[in-house]
Write a structure and sequence with these properties.
By secondary structure, this protein is an alpha/beta fold. It folds into 2 domains: 99 residues, no CATH class; 181 residues, Rossmann fold (3-Layer(aba) Sandwich). The chain has an 8-stranded mixed sheet with strand order 1-5-4-3-6-7-14-13, sandwiched between helices. Strand 4, helix 5 and strand 5 form a beta-alpha-beta unit. 39% of the residues are buried. Bound molecules: S-adenosylmethionine. The site of S-adenosylmethionine (SAM) has 18 residues, from helix 2.
């Protein structure tokens, strides 16, 4: 575990210290690489390409990228989902963090750089930051996410709350975050992923993402992530992705509106679709679809018209659940060591702390 008495020789972000001009400042660093396919313009180009490829697939095999969900409106709607009683995931995370925040943060050393991947709203994160503040540790917390205005809004809610914890944002993708982290001078690093975001990736993709961050971490660094388990009643899972307040439905359908914004004009008649979630017990995942209510044609630039038939489904998201063995397999595929795991009551939810002891 970490040494509790780590004394950083210099500020982990010495070269960026000027970003925090005065107390209460919340800088947001634009880490979207200008030269790669995930750069500011490249990001939209990459999503447009993914849309074009996904919609060119045969009947009932069409897909849309999950990233369409997370524009400014989508992020606000996702926050609203976290307040829905049917969305049990948030409550279980709150339970774990309320009970164990002091224990979870005990091993985070003074002087650490604490980066949250896909931070979203920061209600749950605040429980961790509160614990670090109570331990009087000098921590630099950076929330990474895709939308700058949402980063400003959510981080703004933490303004003035901490003396020891310094807050800021990283505007970009996970890939941008990894590239950026690799350039940061030597300091203890802790990564955080809440809201079972890794569960939104395929099992191999999730392991690859975790491992890719492990590749740039040192033995003392940690990766904290939450994962949903399979210890739930089927009906409870179904409700979580189709809440009675109808917020998940609005969140999903906003992604279709996002498609029109992405291409700059109406490429799709959004009124021809409804949201259709389905829990696939065999694959242990919730599958989210748009179902077409009447046959339509989608016209994307530089591509032949695409016909979507009445009744046809377009998949746009999955939420994987992990039993004990699957969590071990995930950790092993990520070549990680499990430092500790905290479980919600009845093993219904897990927070894993991973490390890479063999790293350089
Ligand atoms: C399931 S939400 C979780 C939000 C928040 N952590 C929570 O627990 O409520 C996933 C978050 O990850 C962000 N996200 C998804 N894919 C991303 C990517 N490739 N790069 C950066 N952020 C991403 C989304 O914008 C969103 O805020």
């Amino acid at each position: 575990m970490f040494s509790q008495t780590h004394h950083p020789t210099s500020d982990p972000l010495t070269f960026k210290s000027s970003l925090w001009k005065s107390q209460g400042d919340i800088p947001i660093i634009d880490i979207r690489s200008k030269s790669t396919s995930t750069g500011s313009d490249g990001f939209d180009v990459a999503i447009r390409q993914a849309v074009t490829i996904g919609l060119a697939q045969p009947y009932n095999e069409k897909e849309l990228p999950i990233l369409l969900l997370y524009d400014e409106t989508g992020l606000r709607l996702f926050e609203e989902i976290t307040y829905q009683p049917d969305y049990y995931i948030t409550q279980l995370e709150f339970d774990i963090l309320t009970k164990y925040a002091a224990d979870i943060t005990e091993s985070i050393p003074d002087g650490a750089l604490f980066v949250e991947l896909g931070a979203g709203a920061l209600r749950k994160t605040a429980l961790i930051l509160d614990a670090l503040e109570a331990q009087r540790k000098s921590i630099t917390y950076l929330a990474l996410d895709l939308d700058k205005s949402e980063l400003s809004r959510t981080l703004g809610e933490l303004r003035g709350r901490y003396t020891h914890v310094r807050c800021g944002g990283l505007w970009g993708t996970f890939d941008n975050g990894r590239e950026w982290l690799a350039t940061i001078p030597d300091c203890p690093r802790v990564l955080l992923s809440l809201g079972c975001s890794v569960g939104n990736m395929g099992r191999n993709e999730a392991a690859n993402l975790i491992r890719s961050f492990g590749n740039i971490l040192k033995p003392q660094d940690r990766f904290l992530l939450t994962i949903d388990t399979k210890h739930h009643d089927m009906e409870v899972i179904r409700r979580a992705y189709d809440d009675r307040g109808g917020v998940t439905r609005r969140f999903a359908l906003n992604a279709l509106e996002g498609l029109n914004k992405l291409f700059g004009h109406n490429v799709i008649d959004t009124s021809a679709f409804t949201y259709k979630p389905y829990y696939n017990e065999v694959k242990g995942r919730n599958e989210a679809y748009f179902q077409c209510l009447r046959s339509i044609t989608i016209c994307l630039p530089d591509s032949a018209p695409i016909m979507v038939c009445e009744g046809e489904v377009i998949q746009f998201a999955c939420s994987y659940k992990y039993n004990d063995l699957e969590r071990q397999l995930l950790q092993s595929a990520a070549r990680a060591y499990l430092e500790k795991e905290w479980l919600a009551e009845g093993g219904t939810y897990a927070l894993m702390m991973l490390s890479w002891p063999g790293a350089n």
